[in-house]
Amino acid sequence: MEARASSPVRLGEMQHKYEYRRKLPHYQPDHKAFFITFSSAKRWILPESARDITMEVCVYGNGKRFHLHGLVVMPDHVHLVLTPLADAAGPFPIADIMQTLKSTSAHRINKILGRTGKVWQDESFDRALRNEDSIPDKVDYILGNPVGAGLVRNPLEYRWMSQRLILSKVGACFFDFFLEWISGA
């Protein structure tokens, strides 16, 4: 995904407009969490080292330009639930956040694997969540993604998931319920 204009265009007080190359414009409401999915180029199955790098880059960005609620790196795509942080100019644009995450991880992946070329598809799917109550639903979805794909039986066994960040947002009560649910109790 490449943003054409990195600085947001103000639309009233509540939204920013950003455009992806060859696609329709997107709107970024202020103070909203986003569910974002981005995929590897040509649905390339990422080696374990590439998944490790992707995890590191996404977790590193937490608290700098966004608050990361949840993260899972699947073999050929990534799911994030995040809320952009703001500075004096307003919230950081999703397009800029994604450009940074994808560019940084791609350069590191190509370097460690001794390769060149695209790592990620240009576009990402992003959806603003209507309210904070939607965050646990999306985190629940990404927790279940490795199980649904048949990679593990218990989502806590999946190596490329940010459990610490998930726990900090949804709390121990939800986590206890989740543990009961997966254990069949």
Question: What brief labels describe this structure?
Answer:
185 residues, alpha+beta, Alpha-Beta Plaits, 4-stranded antiparallel sheet, 3-stranded antiparallel sheet, 9 strands, globular, disordered N terminus
- Shape type: globular
The figure for the number of domains is 1
Integer-rounded radius of gyration: 17 Å
User: How many distinct beta strands?
Assistant: 9
Poorly predicted runs of 5 or more residues? 1-14
The structure class reads alpha+beta
N-to-C order of helices and strands: EEEEHEEEEHEHH
Strand order of the main beta sheet, please? 5-6-4-9
> What would CATH call the homologous superfamily?
Transposase IS200-like
CATH architecture: 2-Layer Sandwich
Q: Give a short account of the largest sheet.
A: 4 strands, antiparallel
Q: Determine the N-to-C terminus distance.
A: 43 Å
Q: Kindly state the mean pLDDT as a whole number? A: 82
As a percent range, the share of strand residues is 25-35%
CATH topology: Alpha-Beta Plaits
Name of the CATH first level: Alpha Beta
Total of helices:
4
Share of helix, binned: 25-40%
What report would you give on this structure?
This protein is of the alpha+beta class and 185 residues long. The chain has a single domain (9-183), classed as 2-Layer Sandwich (Alpha-Beta Plaits), CATH 3.30.70.1290. The protein contains four helices and nine strands. The strands form three sheets. Strands 5-6-4-9 form a four-stranded antiparallel sheet. A three-stranded antiparallel sheet has the order 1-2-3, with no helix packed on it. A hairpin with a 5-residue loop joins β2 and β3 (25-29). The protein is globular and about 40 Å long. The termini are far apart.
